UniProtKB/TrEMBL annotation:
This is DNA recombination-mediator protein A. It comes from Dactylococcopsis salina (strain PCC 8305) (Myxobactron salinum).
Amino acid sequence: MTQSTTEPIQLDTLTQELAAIQQTGSKRIAILGSRHVPITHQQLIEMMSYALVLGGNRLVTSGATGTNSAVIKGAMRADPNLLTVILPQSLDQQPKESRDQLEQVIHLVENPEQNELSLGEASALCNREIISRCQQLICFAFHDSHTLLKTCEEAEDDRKLVTLFYFD
Protein backbone atom coordinates (compact mmCIF):
# COMPACT_ATOMS: atom_id res chain seq x y z
CA MET A 1 0.00 0.00 0.00
CA THR A 2 1.41 3.37 -1.02
CA GLN A 3 1.05 6.17 1.47
CA SER A 4 0.41 9.70 0.24
CA THR A 5 3.03 12.26 1.26
CA THR A 6 0.30 14.71 2.28
CA GLU A 7 -1.51 12.28 4.58
CA PRO A 8 0.84 12.67 7.60
CA ILE A 9 0.75 16.44 7.22
CA GLN A 10 -3.06 16.50 7.06
CA LEU A 11 -3.33 14.18 10.05
CA ASP A 12 -0.84 16.29 12.01
CA THR A 13 -2.76 19.48 11.16
CA LEU A 14 -6.04 17.87 12.21
CA THR A 15 -4.47 16.75 15.48
CA GLN A 16 -3.20 20.28 16.17
CA GLU A 17 -6.59 21.80 15.40
CA LEU A 18 -8.41 19.34 17.65
CA ALA A 19 -5.95 20.01 20.46
CA ALA A 20 -6.45 23.76 20.06
CA ILE A 21 -10.23 23.42 20.17
CA GLN A 22 -10.07 21.26 23.30
CA GLN A 23 -7.57 23.49 25.10
CA THR A 24 -9.39 25.04 28.04
CA GLY A 25 -6.60 27.27 29.34
CA SER A 26 -5.70 30.64 27.96
CA LYS A 27 -3.76 30.94 24.73
CA ARG A 28 -1.45 33.50 23.18
CA ILE A 29 -3.25 34.54 20.03
CA ALA A 30 -1.88 36.86 17.37
CA ILE A 31 -4.41 38.80 15.36
CA LEU A 32 -3.21 40.60 12.25
CA GLY A 33 -4.90 42.05 9.23
CA SER A 34 -5.29 44.62 6.56
CA ARG A 35 -5.38 48.35 7.19
CA HIS A 36 -8.18 48.71 4.62
CA VAL A 37 -11.14 47.32 6.52
CA PRO A 38 -14.77 48.50 6.36
CA ILE A 39 -16.08 49.87 9.66
CA THR A 40 -18.58 47.01 10.09
CA HIS A 41 -15.73 44.48 9.83
CA GLN A 42 -13.70 46.52 12.31
CA GLN A 43 -16.58 46.33 14.78
CA LEU A 44 -16.74 42.54 14.41
CA ILE A 45 -12.98 42.23 14.92
CA GLU A 46 -13.22 44.48 17.98
CA MET A 47 -15.98 42.31 19.47
CA MET A 48 -13.99 39.15 18.75
CA SER A 49 -10.86 40.48 20.44
CA TYR A 50 -12.95 41.70 23.39
CA ALA A 51 -14.45 38.21 23.79
CA LEU A 52 -11.09 36.46 23.43
CA VAL A 53 -9.56 38.62 26.16
CA LEU A 54 -12.59 38.16 28.43
CA GLY A 55 -11.95 34.44 27.98
CA GLY A 56 -8.47 34.95 29.47
CA ASN A 57 -6.48 34.82 26.24
CA ARG A 58 -3.45 37.03 25.67
CA LEU A 59 -3.55 38.91 22.36
CA VAL A 60 -0.60 40.10 20.30
CA THR A 61 -1.00 42.46 17.36
CA SER A 62 0.69 45.34 15.60
CA GLY A 63 -0.19 49.02 15.60
CA ALA A 64 -1.63 49.78 12.17
CA THR A 65 -5.04 51.24 11.50
CA GLY A 66 -7.88 48.96 10.43
CA THR A 67 -7.74 45.40 11.76
CA ASN A 68 -4.98 45.94 14.32
CA SER A 69 -6.59 49.08 15.67
CA ALA A 70 -9.88 47.20 16.14
CA VAL A 71 -8.03 44.42 18.00
CA ILE A 72 -6.42 46.99 20.29
CA LYS A 73 -9.73 48.71 20.98
CA GLY A 74 -11.50 45.48 21.93
CA ALA A 75 -8.66 44.12 24.04
CA MET A 76 -8.20 47.43 25.87
CA ARG A 77 -11.89 47.42 26.82
CA ALA A 78 -11.68 43.88 28.19
CA ASP A 79 -8.27 43.87 29.96
CA PRO A 80 -5.33 46.04 28.82
CA ASN A 81 -2.89 43.75 30.67
CA LEU A 82 -3.64 40.89 28.27
CA LEU A 83 -2.63 42.86 25.16
CA THR A 84 0.82 43.23 23.64
CA VAL A 85 1.35 45.49 20.63
CA ILE A 86 4.56 45.12 18.63
CA LEU A 87 5.35 47.97 16.27
CA PRO A 88 7.37 47.51 13.07
CA GLN A 89 9.26 50.73 13.85
CA SER A 90 9.33 53.31 16.65
CA LEU A 91 6.18 54.94 17.98
CA ASP A 92 7.07 58.31 16.43
CA GLN A 93 7.01 56.65 12.97
CA GLN A 94 3.32 55.75 13.41
CA PRO A 95 0.54 57.94 11.98
CA LYS A 96 -0.95 60.45 14.43
CA GLU A 97 -4.32 58.64 14.58
CA SER A 98 -2.53 55.42 15.59
CA ARG A 99 -0.18 57.12 18.07
CA ASP A 100 -3.04 58.41 20.22
CA GLN A 101 -4.35 54.88 20.70
CA LEU A 102 -0.90 53.27 21.03
CA GLU A 103 0.17 55.62 23.82
CA GLN A 104 -2.54 53.98 25.97
CA VAL A 105 -1.15 50.44 25.48
CA ILE A 106 0.62 49.03 28.55
CA HIS A 107 2.71 46.38 26.76
CA LEU A 108 4.06 48.25 23.73
CA VAL A 109 7.18 47.00 21.93
CA GLU A 110 8.93 49.42 19.57
CA ASN A 111 11.55 48.54 16.96
CA PRO A 112 13.44 51.81 16.32
CA GLU A 113 16.34 49.90 14.74
CA GLN A 114 13.97 49.24 11.82
CA ASN A 115 13.13 52.93 11.19
CA GLU A 116 15.43 53.02 8.15
CA LEU A 117 13.67 50.08 6.49
CA SER A 118 10.63 50.47 4.26
CA LEU A 119 7.33 49.94 6.06
CA GLY A 120 6.85 46.69 4.11
CA GLU A 121 10.22 45.29 5.20
CA ALA A 122 9.73 46.43 8.80
CA SER A 123 6.21 44.96 8.86
CA ALA A 124 7.43 41.57 7.63
CA LEU A 125 10.05 41.48 10.43
CA CYS A 126 7.47 42.65 12.95
CA ASN A 127 5.02 39.95 11.88
CA ARG A 128 7.72 37.29 12.36
CA GLU A 129 8.29 38.55 15.90
CA ILE A 130 4.55 38.47 16.58
CA ILE A 131 4.30 34.89 15.28
CA SER A 132 7.20 33.82 17.51
CA ARG A 133 5.20 34.97 20.54
CA CYS A 134 1.92 33.20 19.80
CA GLN A 135 0.37 29.75 19.66
CA GLN A 136 -2.29 30.69 17.13
CA LEU A 137 -2.69 33.29 14.37
CA ILE A 138 -5.97 34.80 13.26
CA CYS A 139 -5.51 36.85 10.09
CA PHE A 140 -7.87 39.09 8.12
CA ALA A 141 -6.62 39.70 4.59
CA PHE A 142 -7.42 40.23 0.95
CA HIS A 143 -6.20 37.75 -1.67
CA ASP A 144 -3.54 40.29 -2.71
CA SER A 145 -2.30 41.03 0.85
CA HIS A 146 1.16 39.60 0.11
CA THR A 147 2.85 40.42 3.43
CA LEU A 148 -0.03 39.01 5.47
CA LEU A 149 -0.34 35.87 3.36
CA LYS A 150 3.41 35.28 3.66
CA THR A 151 3.06 35.70 7.44
CA CYS A 152 0.35 33.01 7.45
CA GLU A 153 2.62 30.65 5.51
CA GLU A 154 5.48 31.30 7.94
CA ALA A 155 3.18 30.67 10.91
CA GLU A 156 2.05 27.37 9.39
CA ASP A 157 5.71 26.45 8.78
CA ASP A 158 6.30 27.16 12.49
CA ARG A 159 3.44 24.75 13.23
CA LYS A 160 1.10 27.43 14.56
CA LEU A 161 -2.64 27.08 14.18
CA VAL A 162 -3.67 29.59 11.49
CA THR A 163 -7.17 30.88 10.81
CA LEU A 164 -7.33 33.07 7.72
CA PHE A 165 -10.35 35.17 6.82
CA TYR A 166 -10.57 36.86 3.43
CA PHE A 167 -12.38 40.17 2.95
CA ASP A 168 -12.79 39.60 -0.80
